[in-house]
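Study both lines:
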Amino acid sequence: MTIPGQLRFPGGRPKALVMSYDDGSEHDRRLVEIFNRYGIRGSFHLNSGKVGQPYHVTPQDVHVLYQGHEVSCHTVSHPDLTQLDTAAVRREIADDRRALEDWSGRPVRGLAYPFGTYDQRILELLPELGMEYARTAAATGEFTLPERFLEWQGTCHHSRLWEFGERFLELPDGELALLYVWGHSYELDGFMTADVSKNWAYMDACCRRLHGQDAVWYATTIEVVDYLNACRQLQRDDLTVANPAAVAVWIHLQGRNIELKPGTVTTLEAG
């Protein structure tokens, strides 16, 4: 359906930033400290089989460290899911989700594919395993919204965050724009990366540059999913818009931001 005006993110913001990090390395502690300093939000995809092992976060970290951020699945042992039989895929995801929910005390509803690999069989399994989104390892170089939540492609790896961050901030207010960044916190310490200049000082500078922007919603992946699903539920009838969802949705119309509160019908001005 066509909604009058332009959709906006919460608070009437036209842009959103999500930082997405895999593997649960002990380096997440330093990364979360930077994010918290600048009001940046992260989605952290953890392998429960590695939690508590050397060089990884602990079960207590899952509960405490990631407060204010999202904890998400990355499977128990980080296999290439396409090489497993269906029963093993179910175990890798379901057991990971169960452990992460036990440790965090929060629902876990998303996944990052190990190695970024998946196939049609896995896509069909994810809903029954409670996965509402799944992030790949692909980068689009765009600020567009995901067409399919279960095949979510990010904007860029964090090694290009400064470049894409500048482009993002320069975008004019218009259609919704999402800067979705992924990586591994251990890369910032020089591990498994070809560019050691993209280090902790670099990440600090990027977050300092991106923080405090009135036009930007600092969100987690699952928050973006919930918000976009609410947008898709809007119902228009002549000069009214009904929002049956449980979260508020914002639109920009005739030079002003309008909040469509959850469970309400809003009458819009003519013209």
Remarks:
- The chain has a mean pLDDT of 96.
- The domain at 14-229 is CATH 3.20.20.370 (TIM Barrel).
- The longest strand covers residues 15-22.
- The chain has one domain: 14-229.
